[in-house]
Queue: 4 jobs
Job 1
Amino acid sequence: MEQTTDGGFIVAGQSNSPTYANGICLVKTNSDGDTLWTKIIAQGNYSDFTYCIKQTSDGGYAITGATNSFNIHHYYEMNLMKTDSFGNFFWEKIYAAPYKSWGMNLKQTSDGGFIVTGQASFDSINENAFLVKTDANGDTLWTRNFGGTYFRWGYDVCQTSDHGYIVVGNNYNTSGSSSDLILIKTDSTGNLLWSKTYGGTSFDAASSIKLTTDGGIIAGYTNSFGVYGSDVLLMKTDINGNVVFAKTFGTGSENYALSVSITNDHGYFLCGYTCPTIAEIYDPYAIKTDSIGNLVWSKTYGWTYIDQVQSGQPKTDGGFILAGSIRNYALGDAIYLIKTDENGATGYFLEQNPVTVVGSPSITITTPVAITGSGAIVYSIADSLIHTTSGSQELPMCHHTGINEINNPQSPSSPTPSPPKPPLLLMKNKKTLL
């Protein structure tokens, strides 16, 4: 999810449509979270996943994830898909390793192309962090993989001021009994400049990175240093990967951050989810800090289901937006948006101010041996293999307003007509989209 140039939002997820099950679902909303259009892009009888969507410089969208719809190697393959500003399919490229590959995050680069990171398997045992650079049409310029002794995954990537790239992810030990955060710095053509791991004696992982003027800010979770079973981890580094500060935050038995953003006051906004008890019912969890990681406020937005936030960011009006999913909801799984003010308040009756315990861990830094390589098999997917449909509904979360969902009058016709739209139903400041 991210805020678009018109002030609205674009959200991507997986569809459970009866006609196009396991397709990619795109939802475009206005600034209040009301649906403007939806698209389901389905490619066959198998599964397609999306992990990241970004608005591109032409107003359209780029999406990465994994697909096994084309059964190239009998496993999932990393894909990159491009649509226009209304979600209509332009092209898709698949970057296949000999065994499997996944796309976890992407950015549009300064030359108009794309950089995609994820993981790839070049043998039957190990998984490597995977980096793919393409031109504006998704055609490969180069690929790099960064391996170790077991699993090494890339979860987020940024282009740096020297036109190189910084990748953050996870590095598992040989037995898989523990993991560290890993930071990988490359030059402009993906050649390794340095890599560092950060962690303790248990499982520590990174999920998101944003560049600052003097380095980067990283979010994830830690089992090594948290007060609870796992705590949110916020770590600031300089441009060489040295730790400036590290903070942990926790309020329940499990706490995870999946996204970090830089706020207008130079602080940080983290979002993810927490398990308040051992019942495995998760609540959305949002944390605001100052510029050195001190807690400003924290919020949970509970419901009676498995409720997780996958992404969030500051809004242009000073508030925040969070996107996530509800599982085991009475009417099926759903995507939702939560809009807050600058203090995380929504007016939602299950909003809480949890007691968040803050820690300042001492993290061990190591320089791992990196096994680097290149190469991937690239496939272009024909338009005839892609099925597109439009239309979704907003589900009741509180009360019926009687407002009809609108169609964007400027949207070109889609290959499959939109089904009839039900009335819009919403909870104040919390929209659920299925």
Job 2
Amino acid sequence: MTLEQLSAFLGWMTVLNAVFLGVSWVIVLTGRRWMNSIIVRLLPLPEERLNEEYLRWLARYELLIYFFNLMPWLALQLIR
């Protein structure tokens, strides 16, 4: 795999993950009651703690995107 191919792969992977993160934020912000009703039945979590867990999950996912998608793509852009 050449540097150009790897750069293109990481770039598109960053874009797709960012779109998925954005859609997840929209779902969490607009469909919180619907999600809470489903998850409370599946997991032994109190409903008050679910909002905290949603935000924690989204923050971790965002960090993973930065470290494994965006930073390597930026490093490749710098060396090209």
Job 3
Amino acid sequence: MPSLLTPAPCRYPAARARESACPAPRHVASARTSLRAVLLVAGTLLAASPACLAGEAPAESPAPRVLTLEDSIAIALENNRSIQTAIDRLDRAVGRVGEARAAGRLQLSAQATLTRNDQETSFSLPGSNGGPAQEATLTPLYSRTGRLSVTQPIDISGALRASRNIADLGVVAAHLDVERTQEQTVLDVKSAFYQVLRAQAALEVAQANVASLEEHLRQAEAFQRAGVAARFDVLRAETQVANARQNVIAARNAVELAKATLNNVMGIDVSTPLTVRAEEEVEVVLPEYAPSLEAAYAQRAEVKQARVNVEMSQRGVSLAKATGRPTLGLNWQGNVTADGGAFSPRAFQWNASAVISYPILEGGLTKARVTQARADVEAAEVTEQQVREGVALEVKQAILSMEESAERMEAAAKNVEQAQEALRLAKVRYREGVSTPLEVTDAQAVLTQAETNLVNARYDYLLARARYQRAVGQESVATGTAAPANAEGAAP
């Protein structure tokens, strides 16, 4: 955008030719010189960092940490927020177990009371044998009493037992939820880790493409200097190099974004510098569906959790039925009175009782509760079936993805070899003067696409393998690896 102190350029060619002969007014030129001086001083001050102004050397950035897949999984299992939340829910479930058990244990309570009346009430009693009258206190000014109560519920209805069973199953479900969250976190880490590797491999392909095109550009410039190539060939090669460098910039940014995502999954600062270490080789393994599905039903935390939820709902039916049964409680109570007055000769009294209660008319409350509990059982059973069907779909999708990506890897590897040979021949033909530059650039584009396809197929397979391990429930929380059930391997 032009400065406000700079004269607007002439719009028309004829006026543009006279522009140089029409110098700017003197006050405009003076203001322009002053503005440049101010900007120069401001730029010098802004360029000086606080560390330089203080005479200190700038701090060096920390060296990036080298991480393997196992390292990344270990960090995520320690720092991931979802896992911490699941552990908090487990602690809450353990607390509910203690609450349910406390309801059936011996209860002891004590109470002390100090009462001040508005006035003391007393009366006189005639003395015996004509003696003097005696004053008797009916209500003292201050009254002190104490009470000790002991209660023991007797679970004749089964309600306390059902509550304890539900709480115990809640702990089991919470444990399975922690396991499920850990397994999902392992899969998320693997996905983010492989995405970093994919982005790095794509960056290497883009950089190799730039290097090859720069070599072709140098060859075209040499031919132009020798007079055997036109200027157009050099311009075309320069344009292709510039476009390839744009791809390198985008690929480098994709690497940084992938690393930030991995840091986020691991639960650390997204700006933490890191370097990931790739696997040396990828061994292609193609599992079978039937044994994999059987393993998934036996090992997946979601399937186990759905079964536990069904059992909890069934215990809920027992609890609902127990609300319509009689209850029994044993109670012992002791009372201490320090200032009882004339008609309370005993300072300590106690009593014991057994209380049984039976609801006779409740307006159909128990029946309604049982109906709700049975509906919960049916809903839990339907949910369990949905979970099993979803697990079966995940296993099938993972196996199909593994098979597809394995075939793509094999085809892409052969395509890369053919494209490399085609590019070599194209360069030889160009150097000998029997082909055009277009043949070289087309061969280079084909090679770049083939290498990109190989990179995508490789990491699509690794991601599909990770999803398969998650689908069958064979993730190891310690290492994040698993051996596929009854798998048949084939070398790529």
Job 4
Amino acid sequence: MAVDPASAAHAVSGAVAGWSDEDKAHPDNIDNIALFAETAVSNAAAQAIPSSELTLDYWMLQNAAAEAEQARNAVTQVLLAEGIYASREIRTGITLYAADSQVISIAVDNPQQLPVERVRIENPYIAVSITKDTFAELAEDEPLFVSAEPINARIYGLIGDGLPVLTAAASDGPLFGVKANAPVIVHFPALTGNIAYQGVIDENGDSMICKDNTATNTLDTPISGDAVVMIKRDNRKNFWDTQNLSANMREAIDYLTSKGVVGGRSDTEYDPESDISRAEIATLIIRALGKNHLNQGNGGFDDVARSDWFYDYVGATKRHGIMTGFPDNTFKGTQIIDKTQIMVVISNTLVAEMAHTLPTDVEPPLTVFADRAAIPDWAARHVALAVRLNLVTRRTDGRFVPEALMSRGDAALTIQSMFKKIWY
């Protein structure tokens, strides 16, 4: 059932038909069409398989990878011809469809470098993606095993010892059982209605990291290990101290809590006015990327001890090139983060995770600020990228104010803007 690259290009061309020049220049539209293009590329290399219980081999993926690369080139040319200039590369992928199966069970033999960015295995109930990063981290003699399937909620209380008894009333949708011995992305079907505040929760009722994918109408969740999960239609928290915030800040907090990225001081208090530290930002970034289940190791900073609660998160940000610390080899985790630093962090995140590129000419995006001269040179390209991607909240006085300290509410606005441009 493979779709040729020309059909993928036609799909993208149809998606942007009727767009005005203003539409083509809007950062959110550019990001959404890039996601749509990646889905078209993956579908261009789609293959039907008789069962979703399969063994993936590096060599069997090569031909499909060549088709995906042709499709990527084709859709990239369409975007350029339409005058749409994405600030990141279109990623390649392969989709395998198993139309007659309810269970996805995957084994990977000969784990070598994946010839595409990801492989997605899909049936009518659920989908699982394996990324290039997962393949690269597998030892040569270590197979990957993944299984995912819907579970009958009425019998779930009989599964395992010490697990809570759940009934269908405890969830707004079906339960799913997942087992994976390495990090994978599981794509759960969204419920009907608005996907914005839907969330994924585990058997204990705790929120899991998830991302709403409007191109596939799924909630995409990084999982490693065994989990029983369910979809909650409205996973927002009822914080008493966010009710009088601006609509944008309240929406950002509601959105991020529903997706499991941020939490409150308690179930009823968010504490939006308190300052936020560099260690807390490191934690939020790694959670937003869905990498919090990984053991990231030591970042090598002189002022970060293994006993510090943020040890793994800080190590992760350094490992992924997001927060590298100060010239004296310190991280300064308790230091309150300022606006310049957080813009550098989110720009580094999008460069590292989504292949965005830092602009070489920083003046067009930065001269919109009355205090352009106050933006330090070391951060100029990062701030320029953040402005270009519409990640900077504009002040009424037209200034950037690079030294402004960030509150938990401010951070929610910034992290939400970045998170909406992260696609697992």
